[in-house]
Design brief:
- The complex is a heterodimer of chains A (239) and B (265).
- Chain A is mainly α and 239 residues long.
- Chain A has nine helices and no strands.
- In chain A, helix 3 packs across helix 5, helix 5 packs across helix 7 and helix 8 runs antiparallel to helix 9.
- Chain B is α/β, with parallel strands linked by helices.
- Helix content of chain B is 40%, strand content 26%.
- In chain B, the strands form two sheets. In chain B, strands 1, 4, 5, 6, 7, 8, 9, 10 and 11 form a nine-stranded mixed β-sheet that branches.
- In chain B, helix 3 packs across helix 10 and helix 3 runs antiparallel to helix 11.
- Chain B is globular and about 65 Å long.
- Classes of the chains: A mainly alpha (239), B alpha/beta (265).
């Protein structure tokens, strides 16, 4: 970069920055979806180690019998992650290990990816939970009558319906994710697109900052078309 | 046609105004300031030079220094926040009477303004964890070096023969660069000595950080700027010498941990 970079050079630098955003986006999406499913199973867990007290005469014991540890853990987790700013979570993940356990992250990108995956998995898990719980009881009973096992029921009957139902809320979250990737710059050394644009503002150039919007807009445009296409494809069945 | 004529006339008038300004005689600036009884001090807010305490009162090394000088001059100090980029215009248009804000003395500024004797030195330094001080004084090979994006420290981290052996990690502020070292995400922060000295060591969250002794980069000196050709400079230089001699400056500097940075006589 010279003293006065040309528009072409600036766009090239911004594009390089946007590549970092896309990396964060792709990795987060790929890892947060499976993790989100696992968390959603936790939130729906009916595991109650003290259920033997269900019919106890003592009211206190009956209340204790409702204790469901897995559900409690995952719901608390979701509450914390959804209840605090992503920016703060980025700081906690990046600085926490160094400050608390003297084992600092040496790779800023790893810290960013961990924070994003955890954050988005929490949101996704609630969407999946809604999708799974929305499947009517009758379908499970029908599967049982047909002699299907629990895993067969889930993978062959439930899963595809969940995918179809959760496309609209998921596309919302995914588009938000694209824009949230710009928060990664609060971790030192992550040179995403806005980080690059702010460098130009220090040189007295403001337009690169505003033009970053074009990159997000273009990418989200592609995603919107893609989701529209998927929704149409999955429209063969009205349930 | 009328409009164009008006525009040309207006331009001419403004040009005359500026020309008038630049030719104005500042040789008796001292009388001008003494007559109105106040010296308008142009500042920007930054610790530890000029900043606001918990009550919103202006404090800082330069604030107290300026007040002490004004007291000797027999005028009141009035502080006015300025836009750093247009400080020269504020000064020549008499919006302010001086720039007193940890201003680095440069050849360019010397040519455009009348600058006092240097009273404080500044430098860029390496801040590291106490236990690593000796190691990184020798070499920073393989170390991660953090500095604020766009700062003199960033420049040094990428260009200085000694510092560029490390791996650079860009931070969005001086505080972030220090946090990176404190948390272990980086090993060395390259920061401005005067602005950072107040935020590290005893009584701060960065108590484990120290400045590497004997490693200084881009030394510079601070001065007060007056209007070009002003006779204030001479008078203020005399007062600075008095304040240095009678210990007032030591007292103010000690309060802001800047004793070692004073330039005496």
């Amino acid at each position: 970069m010279g003293i006065n970079p040309t528009a072409g050079q600036i766009f090239k630098a911004l594009l390089e920055g946007f590549w970092v955003n896309l990396e964060v986006f792709a990795v987060t999406l790929a890892l947060a979806i499976p993790l989100g499913f696992i968390i959603s199973f936790g939130s729906m867990s009916k595991f109650r180690p003290l259920r033997c007290w269900d019919k106890s005469d003592s009211q206190i014991l009956r209340i204790i019998s409702k204790f469901a540890p897995i559900k409690l853990v995952t719901r608390t987790f979701v509450w914390i992650i959804r209840g605090t700013p992503l920016m703060l979570q980025l700081f906690v993940v990046y600085y926490g290990p160094g400050l608390l356990f003297q084992t600092p992250f040496r790779s800023p990108m790893t810290a960013v990816l961990i924070a994003f995956v955890i954050n988005y998995a929490a949101y996704f898990s609630e969407i999946f939970r809604g999708g799974i719980e929305g499947i009517s009881k009758g379908q499970y009973e029908a599967c049982q009558v047909l002699g299907m096992t629990k895993s067969q029921t889930f993978f062959k009957v439930v899963l595809m319906q969940v995918v179809k139902r959760t496309i609209p809320p998921m596309s919302n979250e995914i588009i938000t994710l694209v824009k949230d990737t710009s928060l990664a710059r609060v971790v030192s050394g992550v040179t995403e697109i806005l980080h690059g644009a702010y460098n130009y503002t220090r040189m007295g150039l403001i337009w690169p900052l505003f033009s970053t919007g074009l990159f997000f807009l273009a990418f989200n445009g592609i995603l919107t078309l893609l989701f529209g296409y998927i929704e149409k494809k999955l429209d063969y069945y009205k349930g | 046609m009328k409009r164009i004529l008006a525009l040309i006339l207006a331009t001419l008038m403004v040009t005359c105004l500026f020309a008038g300004c630049s030719k104005e005689d500042n040789s008796d600036d001292l009388k001008y300031v003494k007559d109105k009884g106040t010296m308008v001090v142009g500042i920007t807010l930054f610790a530890p030079m000029n900043y606001k305490d918990a009550n919103g009162d202006l404090i800082g090394f330069e604030t107290e220094f300026a007040k002490a000088v004004c007291e000797k001059l027999g005028v009141k100090a009035e502080f006015k926040e300025i836009n750093w980029d247009s400080k020269e215009v504020d000064l020549s248009s008499k919006n302010i009477d001086c720039i007193w804000n940890g201003m680095t003395i440069t050849e360019e500024r010397k040519a455009n303004m009348s600058i006092s004797v240097p009273y404080m030195k500044n430098k860029q330094v390496m801040v590291v964890k106490k236990e690593n001080a000796e190691k990184y004084a020798q070499s920073v090979e393989g170390a991660k070096i953090s500095a604020e994006a766009g700062s003199a420290g960033e420049d040094l981290a990428n260009t200085d023969e000694f510092l560029k052996k490390g791996e650079y990690l860009s931070a969005d502020s001086m505080a972030t660069a220090l946090t990176n070292v404190h948390a272990g995400n980086a090993d060395v922060a390259v920061v401005d000595y005067v602005t950072s000295i107040g935020s590290i060591g005893e009584g701060t969250d960065f108590a484990d950080l120290v400045v590497v002794a004997g490693k200084e980069f881009s030394p510079e000196e601070y001065g007060i700027a007056f209007r070009k050709g002003s006779n204030m400079t001479e008078e203020v230089n005399k007062i600075i010498a008095e304040l240095m001699a009678d210990g007032t400056m030591d007292k103010i500097a000690a309060k802001y941990k800047l004793t070692e940075q004073l330039i005496k006589g």
